[in-house]
Request: fold
Amino acid sequence: MQKRYSWKEFQKEIADDHYFYVRSCIRQNFFPGSEQAFLNIMRGDLGKDVFEDARHTSCTGIGYHSDIVPLETIMTVVARQFALMTEAGYENLTSSCITSFGIYTEILETWREFPETLERTRESLYKATGRTFEIPKNVSHNSDVIFHNREQIAAQAKLKLVNALTGEPLRVVEHIGCHYAKIFPSKGIGGSEFPYVLAGMVESWGGEVVDYPERRHCCGFGFRNYLVQSNRGYSVANSRKKFESMAPYKPDFIVCNCPGCTMFLDKWQYTLAEMEGSTYGPDGRGIPVLTYEEMAGLVLGYDPWALGMQMHQVDVEPLLDKMGVDYDPSSKYLGKKGKFIGAPEVATVNCSAVDKFYRIKR
Amino acid sequence: MGKYYDMLAKDVRLREGLKACMNCGICTGVCPAAEFYNYDPRQIIVTVQSRDDEAIEALMKSNTIWYCGECMSCRPRCPRGNTPGYVIQALRTLSQRLGFFVESEKGRQQLAIKRTIGQHILDRGYCISPRLVDPAMHPEQGPVWRWVRDNDTEVFGKFTPNYGKPGAGPVREIDPETLDEIRRIFEVTGGNEMYDAIERHSDRKAREMGFDGANDDYFREVYRYNSNTHN
Reply:
């Protein structure tokens, strides 16, 4: 009984439909196919209403968490997003970014606890833009919304997170990102100790979640610790700690919640291989790192190159082959009109023609 | 006694982040920065809690407050409901307003962040764009990112018709009216004042260090220099 009660604290309300969508600085740059996939899945596969206003901007969260953007400024930029949402007649905000999601929840809580900050923000926004706003009824991260619809996605699935040859569940490392639940654990599914937003998707779609010692450790972004070149040792060292911890469990792939974490866990595998020769996947290559939109997209039968998986540093083909995805290896590096645009230089973490069972072609 | 504490207490993050610390050290135990740097967030809380002006000023002039990665791993673990990460944010903000940040190697780096991320927000409406992530400044991004950058219109063009152009979608051009609104928000809320403080104090320090002001050479110095005395 006590256990059931405590689990209730880690549930959260997620709106069913009619979302005002805000993009992520990092996701749109490094995973633009994932943002597109989210919209396609929501609108096309699930029949939901998701509205995007081209006038929305960054929440400025990277600047805020590297301390160049003051609290009053980010509160007012966030209030402007809420104003655009109010003007469009929406009440449910859904964010593509974990840093932004943390910012939205923190600012709403600050306004609740220190009402004078809300009044000041309203005055500043009106003075700067002439806009007014309503507080959103519901704030979610895009992954919350996918989690909310995970059983419908499972019902429409073309593929499962299962090894097509052996029938065994794929072994998945999930990483929810610090700002999803460490700032306000009650706003994240499962809180910060029992993260379930990605684990729930993995289980519903046939995979098996790997529980490893450093599961809750930061990816190492650390804002200023990555943004300034001379600090990047912090960032790569923290990712390394996670790779060392997860590698013995032989995960088939990593899935991330936060766009920054996805990018770092992908790119730092390249860096570590170049720096010290360490690799963490099979055959001396890397562990593929997916966004949750890419994972959902593969399950729903989307083409991996339409999902943007060619933009990953670590090749995803070993995973595609294991899942039995029907894809064309030779279309990986085609441009917008279907013309070959050249391939990136091959690095240690990448597969090559000498690797035994991958259909990769360069 | 307490002058700096009173200034810090005007920041709601200090009021939310510091109640009464019992010095248990769990924040240090879970802290990614403490694992990498010679760094102990517990000590920062003890210093701020002491309200000792001399010690708080020394803290604001030190490298110490700049090690934190603001991951907030400390927040859910503190048995007293403190958030050392919030206290750090309040200290960093005050350090910049008072010009103390330029007295440390890590603090001086704020100029590089202001001129990259900070300027990008005002110019483009987002913290980053593919142009900002230059492979020369980001060798760790690897060959695939270099390929993306070299073929950006082709690669991004697969996902949006509006790459670098007006309209909805990823990596679009933000319209001038929106950028004006963002700039006015920065003016009204103290964002420009913070940017100006970072520039002004950096310029002063750059001259003290023998540079001809906070020019590109100084930028490169603060962006790249590591004394390797932090671990």
